Automatic annotation (TrEMBL):
This is Oxidoreductase. GO terms for cellular component: cytoplasm; membrane. Residues 406-493 form the Rieske domain. It comes from the Bacteria. InterPro entries: FAD-dep_OxRdtase, FAD/NAD-bd_sf, Rieske_2Fe-2S, Rieske_2Fe-2S_sf, Rieske_Fe-S_prot_C. Keywords: 2Fe-2S, Disulfide bond, Iron, Iron-sulfur, Metal-binding, Oxidoreductase. One of its GO terms (molecular function) is metal ion binding. It comes from Candidatus Filomicrobium marinum. The keyword Plastid does not apply.
């Protein structure tokens, strides 16, 4: 197992002093219920409230502390190299729609921050996609030309302003970065100020059609004409999204850096393994935020080694001090690099909206999608419906499920602070040994579709290698599509 530094947790969420909202303990009737208080859910809520509509938001955990709040939070239309690829694969007009939607998402974020006076450390930055290989420069030139077709200011420079050698970079000026957890907290406050209702720690257990959409939590119920399932991957959908998407995670770490910082802007590498860089600030001073390459959720048996490799790369290339925080974040990829959003089945499930598959670029796309869904509910036209169409064709072999990477044959193979999956009779058992040596046992079958989970030895979670559900060490749900925890089991080991 690789060794790496820092505390477990996200730099944004661990220090968030946010408003709190009570759990749902009643039966409510409302026009629209939104499941999930991330960037899609809160954007949809705010836009609907601005249009005079009624909204309830139900969040399984806490506002601002899930996928959006744990992101690198680059407010940018530079999504590595994408526009030339979209032109080649989907045509000029589809690529234009993608650019226009994301430009609108970026501008909406900036506008709401100003209008609602959200203190989220918004800073103007230049975004660079850099290469270490001179032969890739032609691809950078093609991408700049493609972006320029859609009114995006872009050019190619000889090198990126980094403290290590590069062979060129695609430059997008006039981009931005922020603190995503504080932004979501600000959006939630704006939603409440406009009359929206938010409920935290209210995990949705059932979604039924009873003449209207009925959302059931452990202690309450919401009945609504419209439902927006904005839960990273839908916990329920009229049309399955699991085979249209691929769950993936990446490692994120922060390090203390001196003032002045060694970098000023936002960076991402073109080549694999990818590395993404930006700076931030906390009460003590500046820190560097570094993201490593993606890996399929639950399909790597030594995630700690990924963190160790990331830290080694950072320390070889940048002047950093102590490691501060480390965490995994998850997203879902799509075959064509465009999210799925809208109504999957308008005829048989009218008023049911979903959003998923943001390919790591959910800040601008998620905002655009939230605006689009709000327009649909409010009866306003929106030109992005076909762009994000959740029923568009996809390759049948795109999704690849995996197997547990934590299988052990004996319980003594599981060290203190570690976990493994042990076959006992006909059942797979998730076994964790705590730091005191005590064993804890759960069913290893993911409560979504039954796939045996993998122990994440960096985040200390149980991760599903099929559809990306993530469970805490005690079996409680962190990310869906699972809605129920891994049950405890009594077994003689």
């Amino acid at each position: 197992m690789g060794r790496f530094s820092g505390k477990s947790g996200c730099c944004w969420t661990e220090q968030l002093e946010s408003a709190s909202y009570a759990p749902l303990h009643e039966v409510i009737e409302v026009e629209t219920v939104i499941v999930g208080a991330g960037i899609v859910g809160l954007t949809s809520a705010l836009k609907l409230l601005e249009a005079g509509r009624q909204v309830v938001v139900v969040e399984a955990l806490e506002v601002g502390k899930q996928v959006t709040g744990r992101s690198s939070a680059k407010i940018t239309t530079q999504h590595r190299l994408i526009y030339n690829e979209l032109i080649e694969n989907l045509g000029l007009e589809r690529a234009r729609e993608y650019a226009v939607a994301n430009l609108a998402g970026v501008e909406a974020i900036k506008s709401w921050i100003a209008e609602h006076e959200i203190a989220c450390e918004l800073e103007a930055k230049t975004a660079y996609a850099y290469t270490l290989n001179r032969s890739v420069r032609a691809h950078l030139e093609q991408e700049a030309a493609a972006a320029q077709k859609f009114g995006i200011t872009a050019d190619v420079v000889e090198w990126a302003p980094l403290p290590f050698r590069t062979a060129g970079a695609l430059r997008f000026p006039n981009q931005a970065q922020f603190n995503p957890a504080r932004y979501l907290d600000g959006l939630a406050r704006a939603v409440k100020a406009l009359g929206g209702r938010i409920y935290e720690n209210s995990r949705v257990r059932q979604i039924e059609n009873e003449g209207c959409w009925c959302v059931v939590t452990d202690s309450g119920k919401v009945q609504a004409r419209n439902i927006v399932v904005a839960t990273n991957i839908p916990i329920k959908s009229p049309v399955g999204m699991a085979n249209r998407t691929q769950p993936r995670s990446h490692a994120a770490m922060t390090f203390r850096i001196e003032d002045p910082p060694p970098i000023k802007d936002m960076f991402i590498s073109v080549e694999e393994p990818s590395h993404s860089l930006r700076i931030g600030r906390d009460r003590t001073g500046y820190f560097l935020l570094a993201l490593g390459p993606r890996f399929s959720t639950g399909q790597d048996g030594d995630v700690a080694a990924i963190f160790a490799e990331l830290e080694d790369w950072v320390r070889r290339n940048l002047p950093v001090g102590d490691g501060l925080w480390h965490w995994c974040n998850e997203d879902y990829d799509t075959a064509d690099r465009i999210p799925y959003a809208g109504q999957p089945d308008h005829e048989n499930a009218s008023g049911f909206y979903i959003a998923t598959g943001f390919n790591g670029w959910g800040i601008s796309n998620g905002t655009a999608v939230g605006m689009m869904i709000a327009d649909c509910i409010a009866g306003r036209p929106n030109s992005w419906l076909s762009l994000y169409d959740p029923l568009r064709p996809f390759p049948n072999d795109f999704h690849e499920s995996g197997k547990s990477q934590s299988t052990v044959s004996r319980v003594d193979q599981i060290g203190r602070g570690e976990g493994g999956v042990l076959c006992v009779g006909d059942h797979d058992i998730a076994v964790r040994r705590d730091l005191n040596g005590t064993l804890h046992t759960l069913s290893a079958a993911c409560t979504h579709k039954g796939c045996p989970v993998t122990w994440n030895n960096a985040d200390h979670t149980w991760d599903c290698p099929c559809h990306g559900s993530i469970f805490a060490a005690d079996g409680s749900v962190i990310h869906g599509p699972a809605r129920a925890p891994l049950p405890k089991v009594d077994v003689d080991l």
